[in-house]
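Hi support team,

I submitted a single chain yesterday and got back a structure, but I'm not sure I'm reading the token output correctly. Could someone confirm the output below corresponds to the sequence I sent? I've pasted both exactly as they appear in my results page.

Thanks,
R.
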Amino acid sequence: MNLRAPLGTLLTVCAWLTASPAVADGHPPLWRIDGRHNSVYLLASVHVLRATDDALSEPVLRAYKAANALYMEVDLDDLDPEAAGQFTMEHGVLPEEQTLRDILGPERYGTAHQQALDLGLDLDQFAQLEPWVVAITIAQMQFAKLGLDPGAGVEQRLMERAKQDGKAIAGLETLADQLSALDSLPMKLQGEFLLVSLDEASDMEQEADQLINAWARGDTTALARTLVHDFDKFPELYRSLIVDRNRKWADEIGALLDDDANYLIVVGALHLVGQDSVIELLRAHGHPAQRQ
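Hi R., thanks for writing in. Yes, this is the structure output for that exact sequence:
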């Protein structure tokens, strides 16, 4: 299992994108916030794309060129796959006396099992894994089936440029933070997370091109109209995985606005839209954002 930025990758399934209405502007959603002596650019990302997708439009490249440093949800240039695998082995396996069916309950497990079968997977094979591990695995298998690759995503492409240009690369959180955020969820919420990922994975084949095209145009109205807002059914899950992290990130980004250097920050689009978004949290603290 590839654990490269797992939470962000999986949230792409759940969050392609829960967007608030806005006018399409011909490129991915991008904002600028001006500090006293610098600017911070915030780019909404789709974490997985096809190699043929145009991920870096001219406005995005201009923001990148203006930035002295690149921030992502997690620093993809400083990951340790072995440590990630070890974390999963130590924390992602259920006790012998407990199974995935026990966590979901007979009715929900039956529904989830059928959804997985429709995707070509047998959920019984994951019986001893915690739901968050199963959700990541299913999401990544579906991405691969559709030709969607984190290596072709926005972050990966910008990271490669930053490495070549000698720009600083950093993360708003670590891979351990992301894995711990999933592992620390109560089993009830982990089960909900798995159900959300299965719902979205089931619809992904029909919606992938439409959603990527809408993102590329910056057409959040089309995204809002197209997407099923599964998080509406699970407010506790939304608060744990989205809102709490948004608040932490808003504090970190607010601190960057006191710097002299410019920054480009790339995070999943779900974190930059809606009333609980990083954009709105920063606005409430006196840092209004301008759509670019």
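A quick pointer for reading it: Residues 1-5, 12-23 have pLDDT under 50 and may be disordered. Let us know if anything else looks off.

Best,
Support desk
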